[in-house]
Amino acid sequence: MTKIPVAILGATGAVGQRFVQLLEAHPWFEVTALTGSDRTVGQQYGDGCRWVLAEPMPDYARGMLVLPTEPGFEARLAFSALPAEAARAVEPALAAAGYAVSSNASAFRMAPDVPLIIPEVNPDHTGLIAHQRAARGWPGFILTNPNCTSTGLTIALKALQPAFGLRRAMVVSLQALSGAGYPGVASLDILDNVVPYIPGEEEKIEQEPRKMLGTLHAGAVRPAPVVFSAHTNRVAVSDGHMVCASVEFERAAGPKEVAECLAGFEAPEMVRTLPSAPRQVIEVRSEPDRPQPRKDRLAGAGMTTVVGRVRTDPLFHVKFVVLSHNTVHGAAGGSLLNGELLVAQGLVQ
Amino acid sequence: MTKIPVAILGATGAVGQRFVQLLEAHPWFEVTALTGSDRTVGQQYGDGCRWVLAEPMPDYARGMLVLPTEPGFEARLAFSALPAEAARAVEPALAAAGYAVSSNASAFRMAPDVPLIIPEVNPDHTGLIAHQRAARGWPGFILTNPNCTSTGLTIALKALQPAFGLRRAMVVSLQALSGAGYPGVASLDILDNVVPYIPGEEEKIEQEPRKMLGTLHAGAVRPAPVVFSAHTNRVAVSDGHMVCASVEFERAAGPKEVAECLAGFEAPEMVRTLPSAPRQVIEVRSEPDRPQPRKDRLAGAGMTTVVGRVRTDPLFHVKFVVLSHNTVHGAAGGSLLNGELLVAQGLVQ
Amino acid sequence: MTKIPVAILGATGAVGQRFVQLLEAHPWFEVTALTGSDRTVGQQYGDGCRWVLAEPMPDYARGMLVLPTEPGFEARLAFSALPAEAARAVEPALAAAGYAVSSNASAFRMAPDVPLIIPEVNPDHTGLIAHQRAARGWPGFILTNPNCTSTGLTIALKALQPAFGLRRAMVVSLQALSGAGYPGVASLDILDNVVPYIPGEEEKIEQEPRKMLGTLHAGAVRPAPVVFSAHTNRVAVSDGHMVCASVEFERAAGPKEVAECLAGFEAPEMVRTLPSAPRQVIEVRSEPDRPQPRKDRLAGAGMTTVVGRVRTDPLFHVKFVVLSHNTVHGAAGGSLLNGELLVAQGLVQ
Amino acid sequence: MTKIPVAILGATGAVGQRFVQLLEAHPWFEVTALTGSDRTVGQQYGDGCRWVLAEPMPDYARGMLVLPTEPGFEARLAFSALPAEAARAVEPALAAAGYAVSSNASAFRMAPDVPLIIPEVNPDHTGLIAHQRAARGWPGFILTNPNCTSTGLTIALKALQPAFGLRRAMVVSLQALSGAGYPGVASLDILDNVVPYIPGEEEKIEQEPRKMLGTLHAGAVRPAPVVFSAHTNRVAVSDGHMVCASVEFERAAGPKEVAECLAGFEAPEMVRTLPSAPRQVIEVRSEPDRPQPRKDRLAGAGMTTVVGRVRTDPLFHVKFVVLSHNTVHGAAGGSLLNGELLVAQGLVQ
Q1: For the whole model, what pTM was predicted?
Q2: Which residue of A has its CA nearest to B189?
Q3: Is residue D241 among the annotated active site residues?
Q4: Is residue B231 flagged as an active site residue?
Q5: Which burial class, exposed, middle or buried, applies to B217 when counting CB atoms under 10 A from its CB (0-12, 13-18, 19+)?
Q6: How many domains does chain B have?
Q7: In Å, what is the CA distance from D98 to each residue of D89, D132, D141?
Q8: What phi and psi, each to the nearest 5 degrees, are found at residue A182?
Q9: In this structure, are D278 and D249 located in the same domain?
Q10: Which end of chain B, N or C, is surrounded by fewer C-beta atoms within 10 Å?
């Protein structure tokens, strides 16, 4: 089988680097283009990129020339690790030029005709793509994955939605430094410290899961009726976003049945066989002190959502802790899985 | 004025050290006894104690002999930094021997005849002491201060209770390492990590504020009818407990009036003049990213509660962030302030 | 080929866990016994062990019963992650009972008849084993690997020894927390801090490399005539020991030839084909700010020594920085490689 | 006594903030001007400055307007916290305009006619000022303090120089994040990591102490004949630079006499009475594991140099560890002490 040529947009940033790492030796995709900012265009990737991952830079990328982020590169599918403003400017141009864009950027997530997808949650929302193409007259299209903190939370809630219904969720995040990119958070701001604020983050967490947990109907997504309140915090952790969640259901439920429901959750059959899909979507830990970022973020190579501390909530029904790798499933890995879904559904060939 | 001789029980632990530091050059108290465990009894404090504070060990303590934690030392007031089990065994014996015990331990906090006091919140609850003495036949008595995380939270809620009434509060803590004592949390457990569990902590936070916010009536405290749900987390911070709180009131209220109410809160007049009382009980920050442990824990020398990010909550009425120095106001400083209150009220002379 | 049954002694500690991880799916060895302390004996490994690695616990170990650390378990080769005192007591008993013991413990490293081995450096020193067996009357034997900090340093010096001769080396280490085991260093001792002291460490670094760089002659090792001075520091790093080294040679040499010599170093041919041997023994980095623990410790899966900043020293000849993964090549991985060497040499069958 | 009006140049940076903090309630100086970069000029200091110190921002500074860094502000003495390039451009202009500039910048430290001063070490080197003024035709002048890492090291060596003579010193630093300013080191570069490189730092440490330990003769400083080799590392510490030093003397000396010599060191009499001078210039610790940054950096309010682990060196004569607060004595505090020296010597009135 000939591999599908893919590009990574914004390949020198923290999320871009994770794409570079995850796409090494991918069974379906071959990286044919890396794009960067003016500062790095024309350099070899190994020279222009300040690599921040603990895993070494893959050899295949080292000698590739960094291209400008604009139509012209050779690829059918473009994974976008662009910042929001850059994405807003360039992703429509790429879709108009015929590229399929699987974007990690926030720019178009809430646009009514742009699918916001976690394959384990709402793979059918790719149905929006036909409407998007028709409305905008694009040969290509844009599809997005959610904010890194929304990812694990939405997967956990999706597991519970059919059985219990979702009414309200209070969620407090403890988020990793890599979520802020590089250079991102200054060390003097986080050593021996916590920062209880991440610009724009609480709004995203309060909106994005509603879209993904909603239903596609007549070319539009009707959001789920659940209401969220979010507090977001930055902590001195390299990778792995943790969320403390208290949830109120439509129908009363206790910790035991909730834990069973989480542990038994499976992705739709088409999704299970995607190369980057985790064997286990949700791992439920029974120890009193898990999940923990450093010990659980690599579960399922960073694609498994880990839930623990499922217990009764004195105000709502249950409370629990969710951990998800923010730059793997929460960013590059999630976007990659979306790209694989597009192939499986025949939307990228 | 002759200073009142005081003892520090469990003086070699992390909280004990903070007592030692705060009592240096105290205007009312003079440290006449330091007690420790079997390992350290008989040694000079400077030798037996592994000092963990960033501030240097005060000279006065260096040469003092560590005494056993049992009746016999010369002091009228004993500040207790004992672990819960040790406190359960020895504090009643000390009260029976005539000592006034101002305890930071959790052992007797919820006992019906033991006052649980934050002077800025409920100084009148010392009225329980007469009942305690009568019921137990003790010439001395035990008075307690709350759990370190409850302290700042309860102060903030007390400021709001008269104006708005308190119905429900969802609270998620990010707690400092010093709260676990020494050696406490292993470095391999917290570097690049968060631990979403602190044994027994959530139960304390869900119960203690209700007692302090309650009313003393006919020799008993009737708890406030507010209901709490708590999540507790350990983070890589040396000092300073942070709490993300969402609060539902009896009467609807918005961020502006809540912030004004917090900023305007004053302790009862008798409390304001105590040597360790902060000039400002609550400092309200208006920056989007404050309070932060490293930058705000020293407000009012660790005795001021700092609140910020007061904003509308989509589920309850408002949400905000509370920071309090866990070993100062949340432990040794709170207990010391309680001791000063006892002097001001004539209960220790 | 039938795999050789091996045991891990002290399998629940930090180094023991690394053995458990590295031996998952090993081509030559199969773990047939895990031993632990009284606290854990009789429990399933998954229950008795507080796993501290970032990598998940391998499934094969989870259900194994923890055995006492004494003769009787079924294995031909025992990898020892025991503390020094325990090793001193039990390793001779095991050798006397016929086991081959590949020990990471310091207890017997400097014993004249016990080989202290890094396969890339001195594989011929296993020649001591015959003398050891004869002198002690053991059917089994003990072989050791060096202190974690000595490992990378000795490999780098071995690369330079033939060409330039070694006269003096000043070495200052910045060592990771995992080197102290678990619970090891208290978080309050290392957050926002450095501890400039590790008990017994400087002596080991000043002695062990001399033995390994020495020559085996007539059944005894004659130490290399190089003299070391060591300063050791503990820093807030999870894994990866860094050493700043200044070296004076017998024959003057500059940074360029030293860097080439390091980069060109190869292990003896028999060693290169061992399953755990790194493809590249030493990786020389040319960036000004490498190696770094978090970014380079996984080079060669933790078995490659990374050297950088090779430059002229105003006092000696050159100075450079050496990084080695302290629990992989510096402990469990080094000991495992020694076990493989024993198989290749026919000393374990 | 009327206070002397002083300015702080570059007041919004990390070192500038430390000047602001140290000059609160100074007995001799009153801050009359704060200067900043284009970004902050015209704003109130409390708004334009992102405060990074753990100590709260002093009230006096909050409402002051940030001025441009150029002649025109009202002050007789200007403390400079400027970056090197800015200092190179503007400090001569200020000296030409009549200001006395006490600079923490590296720009002119090694200029032959600019004194490089630690008052405890070489207060007589201010004798260069007359030559500087004559040669350059300036009514004002520039005086500098050394690099933060050189400070403590030079003080320790000065204590030993008269008794033993200095021949060679091998020094390896573990430096705090605040030394890199703000935002400085990215958190992703230092969490769970060490960076073995600080641009330009090793050269400074190898040169600056030689000038300060030298002798002023006929209007020029003859450097001391000691030779240094330095390795510098950045570690995850907020404040406090640590140096591991091995020293070879002209005359053999052992740890006992060296420790006594360090502990007995006194500043020249005129220096001892300066407001910011530490009561004790060097504190010698006898514990095996001190000094440590977090526990010892506040010794003498950050102005005392703490030395420990004095022991025999197998290659040179002795080795020891030096700790100095890098933004207090190593930067703003050292510069402030220099300003006080100028007043005591009548060079600023």
Answers
A1: 0.95
A2: A294
A3: yes
A4: no
A5: exposed
A6: 2
A7: 16, 13, 7
A8: -130, 135
A9: yes
A10: N
- A56 reaches C (C-beta below 8 A): yes
Sheet holding C77-80, edge to edge: C66-68, C29-36, C4-9, C77-80, C100-103, C141-144
Which member of A241, A317, A325, A329 is catalytic?
A241
Q: In what order do the strands lie in the sheet with C166-175?
A: C227-234, C166-175, C241-249, C318-324, C305-312, C282-284
* Angle between helices B255-263 and B148-164 in degrees, nearest 10: 110
Residues of chain D contacting residue A185, judged by C-beta atoms under 8 Å apart: 186-188
User: Any chain A CB within 8 A of the CB of B53?
Assistant: no
Q: Are residues D166 and D94 in the same domain?
A: no
Domain of residue A121, CATH code: 3.40.50.720
Question: Dihedral (C-alpha) D41, D45, D50, D54: value to the nearest 10 degrees?
Answer: 150
Q: From the list C206, C292, C315, which residue is nearest D194 (CB)?
A: C292
* Cβ burial, residue A30 (10 Å; 0-12/13-18/19+): middle
Residue A322: alpha-carbon gap to chain centroid: 15
Instruction: Please provide the DSSP assignment of C171-195 as one string.
Output: EEEEE-GGGG-SS-SBHHHHTT--B
State the catalytic residue, choosing from D49, D125, D131, D148.
Answer: D148
Question: What one-letter code names the amino acid at C96?
Answer: A
Range of the structural domain that residue B54 is part of: 4-147+332-344
Smallest CA-to-CA distance from B193 within A303, A323, A245 is with A323
What is the H or E stretch that residue D142 is in?
strand D141-144
Total residue count of chain D as it appears in this document: 349
How many other C-beta atoms lie within 10 A of the C-beta of residue A344? 17
Q: Tokens 């090891």: give the residue.
A: C184
Q: Which residue of C has its CA nearest to B178?
A: C188
Out of A56, A294, A299, name the one closest to residue C298 (CB). Answer: A56
**Host H or E run for residue A311:** strand A305-312
| Closest listed residue to residue A320, CA positions, set A203, A242, A249, A217 | A242
Give contacts of A226 with chain B, Cβ < 8 Å.
none
DSSP C228: E
Residue A188: closest CA among chain B residues belongs to which residue? B294
> Per the CB < 8 Å rule, is D174 touching C233?
yes
For the question of an ipTM over 0.90, the answer is yes
D25-38 confidence digits (pLDDT tens): 999 999 999 999 99
CB-based contact C51 A295, cutoff 8 Å: yes
Q: Say whether both C121 and C209 belong to one domain.
A: no
Is D36 in the same domain as D136? yes
Nearest alpha carbon to residue B206 among B181, B185, B226: B226
> Which C residues, 155 through 184, put their C-beta within 8 Å of a C-beta on chain D?
168, 170, 172, 174
CA distance D276 to chain C (A): 25
- D205 φ/ψ sector (left φ>0, alpha ψ -120 to 50, else beta): alpha
**Same-domain pairing of B129 and B235:** no
| Chains in touch with C (≥3 Cβ pairs < 8 A) | A, B, D
Tell me the chain A residues in contact with residue D191 when contact means C-beta distances shorter than 8 Å.
Answer: 177, 187, 190, 236-238
- Determine, yes or no, domain membership for C349: no
Same-domain check for residues A174 and A300: yes
Q: What is the distance between the alpha carbons of residues C309 and D169, in angstroms, rounded to a whole number?
A: 20
Give the lowest-confidence range in A51-55, B237-241, D302-306: A51-55
Tell me, yes or no, whether D127 and D168 share the same domain: no
Catalytic hit among A49, A131, A148, A329: A148
Angle CA(B83)–CA(B84)–CA(B86) in degrees, nearest 5? 70
Per-residue DSSP letters for A145-192?
A: ---HHHHHHHHHHHHHHHHH-EEEEEEEEEE-GGGG-SS-SBHHHHTT
Average pLDDT over residues A131-156: 97
In tens, the pLDDT along C214-231 reads: 999 999 999 999 999 999
Q: Is D190 on the interface with A (CB under 8 A)?
A: yes
CA dihedral A13, A17, A18, A22 (to 10 degrees): 150
Per-chain mean pLDDT for chain C: 97
